[in-house]
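Hi R.,

Here's the chain you asked about this morning:
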Amino acid sequence: MGNKVQGTLLIIGGAEDKTGKCEILNRFVELSGAEKSSIVIITTATQEPESVGREYFNIFKKLGAGNIEVVDVDSRKRANHSYLARLLDKATGIFLTGGDQLRITAILGGTAANEGLRKAYLRGAVIAGTSAGASAMSNTMIVEGDSGQAPKLNTIRMAPGLGLLEEVVIDQHFAQRGRIGRLLSALAHNPYIMGIGIDEDTAVLVHPDAMLEIIGSQTVTFLDGRQVVFTNVSELSPGQALAIEHVILHVLPKGFGFDLVKRKPLRPEPEKGENDENY
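And here is the predicted structure, written out as tokens:
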């Protein structure tokens, strides 16, 4: 996994605080360079690009961002426009809004915008995404699935994502919409991947060294299928319940971290005088 992370990602579970301390969005602005930042907001996922774009523009401006551009990339023609490529080439932070993650990949996939996004990521720009924008970051994403249901065969639909984070599948609005069943279904189909379920107003900050930092008010659920010893996914008919043995589960709040290479949680640094250490 060490070479599967090549830049900085801020993956947000949706419904992040926009009116209070704005911890997650403020962190994005800071990572982008604060008053020296050049932020591009991409509203491709949403059906209401004008209002959503304006909302994030106002928030980022209030949080002290420098230059901010909102771009409604609603077609593959626009995704190949040279103006967008120039914007992404100068961006220090790129923000993908929520909506429908399939719109992101269907419109951006294989275009100049997709290439510009990847180049920005590799040169050190911070790529952030909330809700649908979070799901689209991995190389495989969940685009449809029953929430609040037991894991069953063919109850989820998956598709290629933007590929910024490999060997991971991300789900958002996780605890609030009861999505553990569909994330387990994804693992049953490919136990080698790491499932990451991010609650609302919570984010995973992925550093270039594959160390993850958790911020926000709720939790992140990690499902590690690498040590799965049995799954009956190949023996079932659609709609039948899945069996999956020996999934490792971690639930971690703000202050904890996660090592994607070793697939191990990291505890917060102990207070001075305490005898504790990460494990």
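One quick note: Residues 2-261 form a domain with the Rossmann fold fold (CATH 3.40.50.880).

Cheers,
M.
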